[in-house]
């Protein structure tokens, strides 16, 4: 006979304990343990095999081509790898109010033009609220069926009777299954509901979009067990103070990872940005110190972004270091390189670094932009407006080559830049292939002489 077992589980990492703990010994989170119940001694129906399976030789399996369906939104299709794959499970996460429900409703509008009925399951908003948003976005709502339901059994029953061509679960934290006693949003409920939705998607060959809430640390709540179950993980990034939104691919079994799509939030919803480099540089100040343009690569797309820095004498015993959009530890490392290898005295200076537009850049090719911006602000010498840079900086002050130099230079030339200061290793390979003037540098001192006016 089945018995009920009570245990405590951390809602941040999934660690289980026989008793309540104030601090999780695994991830260090405070007050994250919640009481949950599990049925033992019986066999769950969801774990029983649906049919007998036999091992098959990999050589004997016939390969198939993935049929993709366009959503009508080019940037959304880009991050998915070219479109929606049948039977895939796609997780969309992001901060509250950043546009997760909006982009999925717009994507459903595009899908409805090439497919049949689509099921939109809402566990947070009423049908009237979704209707108001659809009218504001001018969504084609003829083939979109709304289902205000939070019971997983009710959702799967409705999906089985309707047989939609795609389905949205908004959001997974509100859905619960009756097989578990824990509250909706707990680790057990999220894991079990996501697993059953994944099983339904694979058996019925319909794509399932899942909206996931994020924690205060910016990760999907649940915890990361959701990211292991699904096929594709998309994160919405952006600051509410900016109108730009970045949809970033963190995992994709059907395409490349680290791909991004750039959108602009407007009154009529999210509008895709076809030329983000020109948009990010549209308000760049001219002949002002502490501003440099860097050619970076996000996924397969070259982007021209502006890095700004403010270096000023500190009024405290300990100088402040602040970075927005770039890694804080990387900035501290480059400041040390400037002091040791380039002779800049920054020990008593407050240094503030910002990537304009709310972007987050993680690739090391922005190193040259960071040191150029800091040196420009410290020496009060502006960087020539039509000059762009890219390259990695080593601890010895050497400038290292980076990948995809030709794509970066083509983007800079298209935007209107006339000169590029790049690593000497890249300059030897691309000289003569580009119309833009190319200056190769080997170390930080040579770079600062070439870039500062």
Describe the structure.
The protein is an alpha/beta fold and 453 residues long. It has three domains: 3-43; 68-274, P-loop containing nucleotide triphosphate hydrolases (Rossmann fold, 3-Layer(aba) Sandwich); 278-451, Ribosomal Protein S5, domain 2 (2-Layer Sandwich). 27% of the residues lie in helices and 27% in strands. It contains twelve helices and 23 strands. The protein has helices at residues 74-80, 100-111, 127-137, 152-162, 187-204, 225-229, 276-280, 328-341, 367-379, 405-415, 424-430, 444-451; strands spanning 3-10, 16-17, 33-40, 68-69, 84-85, 89-94, 118-122, 144-148, 166-170, 208-212, 232-237, 244-252, 260-266, 269-272, 291-298, 301-313, 321-324, 349-355, 387-389, 392-393, 399-400, 419-423, 437-441. The strands form five sheets. The protein has a nine-stranded mixed β-sheet, with helices on both faces. Strand 13 (260-266) and strand 14 (269-272) form a beta hairpin. Helix 8 crosses helix 9 (367-379). It is globular, with a radius of gyration of 26 Å. The termini are far apart. Mean pLDDT is 87; it is low at 43-47.
């Amino acid at each position: 006979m089945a018995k009920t077992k009570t245990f405590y589980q951390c809602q941040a990492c999934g660690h289980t304990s026989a008793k309540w703990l104030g601090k999780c010994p695994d991830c260090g989170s405070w007050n994250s343990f919640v009481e949950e119940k599990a049925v033992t001694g019986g066999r769950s129906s969801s774990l029983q095999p649906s049919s007998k399976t036999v091992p098959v030789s990999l050589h004997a399996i016939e390969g198939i081509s993935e049929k993709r369906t366009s959503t009508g939104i080019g940037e959304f299709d880009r991050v998915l790898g070219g479109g929606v794959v049948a039977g895939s499970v796609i997780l969309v996460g992001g901060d509250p109010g950043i546009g997760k429900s909006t982009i999925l409703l717009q994507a459903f509008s595009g899908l409805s033009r090439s497919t049949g009925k689509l099921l939109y399951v809402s566990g947070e908003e009423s049908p009237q609220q979704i209707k108001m948003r659809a009218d504001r976005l001018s969504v084609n709502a003829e083939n979109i069926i709304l289902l205000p339901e939070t019971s997983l059994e009710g959702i799967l029953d409705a999906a089985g009777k309707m047989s939609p061509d795609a389905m949205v679960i908004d959001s997974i934290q509100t859905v619960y299954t009756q097989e578990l006693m824990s509250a909706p949003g707990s680790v057990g409920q999220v894991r079990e509901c996501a697993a059953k939705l994944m099983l339904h998607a694979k058996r019925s060959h319909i794509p399932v979009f899942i909206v996931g809430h994020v924690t205060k640390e910016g990760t999907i709540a649940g915890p990361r067990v959701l990211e292991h179950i699904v096929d594709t993980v998309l994160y919405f990034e952006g600051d509410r103070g900016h109108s730009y939104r970045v949809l970033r691919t963190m995992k994709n079994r059907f395409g490349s990872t680290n791909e991004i799509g750039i959108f602009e939030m407007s009154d009529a919803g999210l509008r895709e940005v076809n030329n983000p480099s020109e948009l990010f540089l549209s308000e760049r100040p001219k002949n002002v110190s502490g501003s440099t343009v860097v050619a970076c690569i996000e996924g397969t797309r070259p982007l021209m972004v502006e890095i700004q820095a403010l270096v000023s004498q500190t009024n405290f015993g300990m100088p402040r270091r602040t970075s927005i959009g770039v890694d804080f530890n990387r900035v501290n490392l480059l400041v040390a390189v400037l002091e040791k290898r380039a002779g800049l005295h920054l020990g008593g200076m407050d240094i503030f670094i910002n990537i304009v537009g709310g972007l987050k850049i993680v690739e090391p090719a922005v190193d040259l932009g960071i040191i150029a911006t800091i040196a420009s602000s410290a020496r009060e010498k502006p960087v020539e407006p039509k000059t762009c840079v890219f390259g990695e900086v080593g601890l010895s002050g050497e400038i290292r080559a980076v990948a995809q130099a030709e794509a970066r230079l083509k983007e800079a030339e298209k935007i209107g830049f006339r000169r590029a200061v790049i690593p000497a290793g890249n300059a030897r390979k691309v000289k003569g292939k580009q119309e833009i003037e190319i200056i190769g540098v080997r170390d930080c001192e040579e770079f600062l002489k070439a870039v500062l006016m």
